[in-house]
Each structure stands twice: as structure tokens, then as C-alpha cells.
Amino acid sequence: MRKQLLAATLCLAATATGCGATVESSRDAKSSSSVTLTNCGRRVTYDKVPERVVTNDVGITELMFALGLEDRMAGFAMPDEKGDLRGVPWKDGYEKTTWLSKDQLTKENVLDARADLVFAGWNYGFREDGGFTPDALEKLGIPSYILTESCHNGRSKSSRGIMPPLDALYADLTNLGRLFGVEKRAAALIADFKRQIAQVRAEAPQGADRPSVFLYDSGRDAPFTSGRYAAPEQIITEAGGVNVMHDLADSWATVGWETVVQRDPEVIVICDYGDVSAEQKKEFLLSYAPLRNVSAVKHRRIVSLDYADLVESPRNPSAIARLGDYLRTVPAGR
Fold it and tell me: What's the rounded Cα separation, in Å, for the pair 112 and 202?
């Protein structure tokens, strides 16, 4: 989906396909040994290694590809508005795997693909309306794995997030590594991600020099943004900024423009996806009268990252590095 990834990320994330790495074979799919994992706070036992996994959305799909598990996939669902897939490190995975739907997964997709595992998330495929839930799939004899970033946290029926976003990423990579018998590959990927992020952190602004940042996803009447449990929270903080919506105990949610004005972010990050382009979103922010005195708008400090950078995915570390490069250009004292 996008072309601006760090070379180191490309190499490590594509462990299964080259860069001089030793390929680790996944566990024999005929193995009868079960694996018990903790997923969204629940202990879940999988009786066998899945051979026909179906995934929903780009970040989830690329977690499988980054671990070299495209041979365990029966297909994926993903809108075609999520970017150009030709430039990503895992483009071979896309070429080897069937694109089942350009909408969200359905029971029909799953059954037609003869799936033996559905890897999705709440609001990333799983949804109560329409009845596409892990419980509904279990009744069909199909197990599920829920993206950790999307786990319901009990604060409301819809609020999501149970741990810091990067911890969620590492938890899912670790769990997938165990489930598919590629623990070493998962551990190497996590170690490299942590190394990349530590390097950015070491160069990032400190203390009062850290600029305040607002994540703008979409919405004109009211903005859709990121709270402290979605990936942008740590993408912003590790890059050297402060998420102005850190106190929002949710992953993704709608707030009021008056809150944005009151918190006066010094930088706005646009989530680039959908029918409205990043440039159109930027034009709206710059022309929207209530925002005219917001620091980021006055100084035109607006930068965009791709959707796949800003949901839980193996692109998160490179997004941190690129945002870190930008935040270091914001003058102290602003």
C-alpha cells in the first residue's frame, strides 16, 4: 500500500522472502498438538495449525505476510481504497493470496473459502450488526483470532483497546508465531521493530519541545480521531510528539471541533485513505473557519500518513520514523 518504507523494515518484515535471512518453516500443518493463546483477555485453544486463514483489512493481512504465512491463507477482504499495493514489502503475499472481497468479510466469503480460521477485529470485519462475530463463526465450526488493538475494553459497548498499541502489535505477532510455529521469525521481527523505534526515540524532541499533535481521520461536522489505544497514540509519542487526544480511553472515536480548537495542536496528521484524498482533507482543514487560529493550521504544519501506517500493522515502525523526521523540523517554542 505505500512506497515510503524504511529499507530495514522491508528487509526484516520480508524475512520469508529474502534479504539474506534464514527461512523458518512453519509448524507442520498436520500436527495434532493444540495451542492455547490469550486473545482479548480470554484463553483460547486452537486444536490444529490453520491451513486456510481468511483475513479482513490491510493491517491484519500484512501481519500474516510479514511473518511469511501467506501459504497458510485462503484469502483476504479489503477495500481497494486502501492504497497501491505494488510498492509494499509484502507484495508477493498479495500476489499469492486471493482477494475475496472489496468490502468486509461475510459468512459467505468464509464458507466459500473453506476457511479454518478468521483473523479480523472489531470494526475490522467483526461486527454485531450483520452477525459477523466470533461467536457466530464458532457455531459454524470456524475458530477466530481477534486483532488485539480492537479488543472491547468494557468501558462502553463500542470502546476498544486493552493495552498500549505497540504492545498490541507485539502480542499479536507473538501469538501468531506460536500458533503457526514461527516463534523465531516473530521474535526477530519484534526485536527489529523495537530497535528501529528506539533509534527514533533517541533523536526525538524531549520535554517541552515535544509538539502537540492531532490525528485527523475524517469528518466535517465532527472529526473522527485516535485515542490512546489506537496505533497513532504511540506513533505520535515515539516520534517525539504528544497526542492531544491521549485522555480518550478508546481506539478510534468521534470528538467535537471545539475540543480540537481548545487543545490547539501544533501539528495535524491526516490519515490518508478513502474517497476523500489527503490533499482534499488538508484543504478542508486550512479553510475551515473554526480552525483558523489553531497553531497547526496557522503554520500549515499538516502531514499525512497512510491508513496502513496508522492501524495496527507491521508498517507502524516505519511510520514512527517518518513522522519523527517531520516533528524534528517543528521549531522549539513554536
Answer: 49
